[in-house]
Write a structure and sequence with these properties.
It contains 8 helices and 9 strands. It has about 260 residues and is of the alpha/beta class. The protein has one domain: Aminopeptidase.
Length: about 260
């Protein structure tokens, strides 16, 4: 069984749970679907959780499944989960999709890949309070997060990881983030890359998933990067801790965009 079949099987096995719906969203033009999961009461503020846009970064995929299987997500919110946004990449263990495309550059102009189009179209029906996209950085010895504007959620995550003695990436100037962002588009702190969304939009040839969510007006948008040099178990612990910390810090009445 390939990892996507296993993932699909485990999500579908959760069907029948109260407040949980597992569906498959078609990617127009290619023979593939994306899992899309709704969890919690539809009238509660919505949080979007996604993983696996890079097929060689599986920790987030299994972390989201664990969080739902174990019933650990804060019940004050409803969730739209995209458990694996690049199924063909997961199967082949590659960053790119079967077409050789880095899908995380295809979220501009309504989506320029079948996967991005499917996600952006489906996400139009909800207003999200927060969006978390789960990644791994294969060269990192510690965790870090990308956060936009002056949000304080990344800082809260770093404090939580420190308390649990999980490694945090120092991110000195020389650290290669592996993304083509000019130095003036971001500010590096321990465990946090603070991104200027306007500069990011100008610098990248195509939007990332997170930038598309931010442009839609989602107030809290983070991209979480587990340390690729840590063990698989530790990578999942980092991401689990990061997701739970953000949820614990979100306030139900906080639906206004974060401003400088
Ligand atoms: Zn990634």
């Amino acid at each position: 069984m390939d990892p996507y079949q296993e993932l699909e099987g485990r999500w579908k096995a959760l069907r029948g749970r109260a407040d949980l719906q597992v569906r498959e969203v078609a990617c127009v033009g290619v023979a593939r679907t994306l899992l899309c999961v709704e969890l919690g009461p539809i009238d509660a503020p919505a949080v979007a959780l996604s993983a696996g846009i890079h097929g060689d970064e599986p920790a987030g995929i299994w972390t989201l499944l664990d969080l739902v299987e174990q019933g650990e997500l804060d019940t004050r919110f409803s969730y739209r989960l995209w458990p694996c946004t690049n199924p063909t990449g997961l199967v082949s263990g590659t960053r790119a999709s079967a077409e050789g495309v880095d899908l995380n550059r295809t979220f501009g102009r309504g989506g320029t890949s079948p996967e991005a189009r499917a996600i952006l179209t489906a996400n139009r029906d909800r207003k999200f309070l927060a969006s978390l996209d789960l990644h791994e950085d294969r060269d990192a010895a510690g965790f870090y997060a990308y956060e936009y504007g002056t949000g304080t959620l990344a800082k809260a995550i770093i404090e939580a990881l420190d308390r649990r003695a999980l490694p945090v990436q120092a991110l000195e100037r020389e650290y290669d983030l592996g993304v083509p962002l000019p130095a003036e588009a971001m500010q590096l702190e321990r465990g946090c890359v603070r991104v200027d969304p306007v500069r990011e939009g100008e610098a990248l040839s195509g939007f990332s998933y997170s930038l598309a969510m931010l442009r839609r007006g989602v107030p809290h948008v983070l991209t979480l990067e587990a340390a690729g040099l840590a063990s698989p178990e530790q990578r999942r612990r980092m991401l689990r801790e990061a997701v739970l910390t953000v949820l614990a810090r979100l306030h139900l009445d906080d639906l206004s965009p974060v401003t400088d």
